[in-house]
Amino acid sequence: MKNYDIAIIGAGPAGMTAAIYACRAGKSAALFEKNYPGGQMVNAHIVDNYPAEGEIGGFDLAQKMFEQTMAAGAEFINEEVTDISPLADGVRIVTARGEYAAAAAVIATGTVRSRLNIPGEDRLDGRGVSWCATCDGALYKGKDVAIVGGGNSALSEAIYLAALCKSVHIIHRRNAYRAEASLVEKLRNTPNIVEHLECVPEAIEGGESVSGITLKKGEEMLTLPVEGVFVAIGGKPDQKLLAGMEKDAGGYVKTDGEMRTSLPRVFAAGDNISKQVRQIVTACSDGAIAALSASAL
Ligand SMILES: Cc1cc2nc3c(=O)[nH]c(=O)nc-3n(C[C@H](O)[C@H](O)[C@H](O)COP(=O)(O)OP(=O)(O)OC[C@H]3O[C@@H](n4cnc5c(N)ncnc54)[C@H](O)[C@@H]3O)c2cc1C
User: Fold this and answer.
1) CA-proximal residue: ligand 1, atom 41 (nearest)
2) Domain 114-231 has CATH 3.10.20.340
3) Residue 137: its pLDDT value, please?
4) Which CATH fold topology does 2-111+237-295 show?
5) What pLDDT was estimated at residue 46?
6) Would you kindly state where each structural domain of the chain is located, as residue ranges?
7) Catalytic machinery residues
8) Counting Cβ atoms within 10 Å, is residue 94 exposed (0-12), middle (13-18) or buried (19+)?
């Protein structure tokens, strides 16, 4: 079984920063990732709140972070971690391809996007229903689309789609967005975005592909004719690797100030922990603290 000082699961900003700090502390660091490096960052069309970068594409920022992580000396292992269990003096990491041991683990697995759980969503997934405007937006050039959500991601995706699509209907169940004021202003200054506040999506319509979305506003029902529905209602931590850890009511891992979880030698960092602000910069901060705490064991 290959042995490392620190095993880091997830190569988003939290995991990559943890790997950089672990290597700089003189530790061997294995960075496990089931997809490609970057995490949710790669879905951000533009990031303009990461210090010193000004305005940068999410994909480019992810690439830069990954290059720095590799240059620091981390080992990138492109495998999905399926289990973590305690060893006498460390942790065992299991993937589909093998088993690894480490003195400590940092779980930086982020979140998976929440679903609407309404009729049509599953059936039309990939046939007009999408979870990523940056990935799929170009398919809807010149068309009418809808986006569901009211946070930073939903608003920035709506603004991105508006540059490609004929019209973008943004649907939010509350009467105000939970997004930065600058994004709300930008949204309201984009003429082909139509707002539907205090509206609850009831069904996604269509035969072979999406033809509309039905909303409920008060007692009234309304169907918007759209060819694409983007779902951007946030995410929840994937519980697969979090068994046995103390969590809050939302399923986010409880950590102390050193990013320790309730399990020995297991630390957590980034969007999967219980905290107020889920952003790239806070994920990086958590990752740095977790790696230094793990290095001090
Ligand atoms: C569309 C969009 C736009 C955004 N825009 C901004 C922005 O402008 N500014 C900003 O600061 N933030 C933005 N965010 C939020 C930001 O991207 C997240 O807060 C941040 O990426 C969280 O980092 P993380 O490392 O905790 O998790 P993630 O980025 O979610 O990374 C987790 C990684 O872990 C991997 N993983 C999960 N499970 C396993 C497993 N079992 N084995 C191996 N690998 C696994 C995943 O594949 C993923 O790569 C945006 C998010 C979205 C969706």
Assistant:
1) 81
2) no
3) 93
4) FAD/NAD(P)-binding domain (3.50.50)
5) 87
6) 2-111+237-295, 114-231
7) 132, 135-136
8) middle
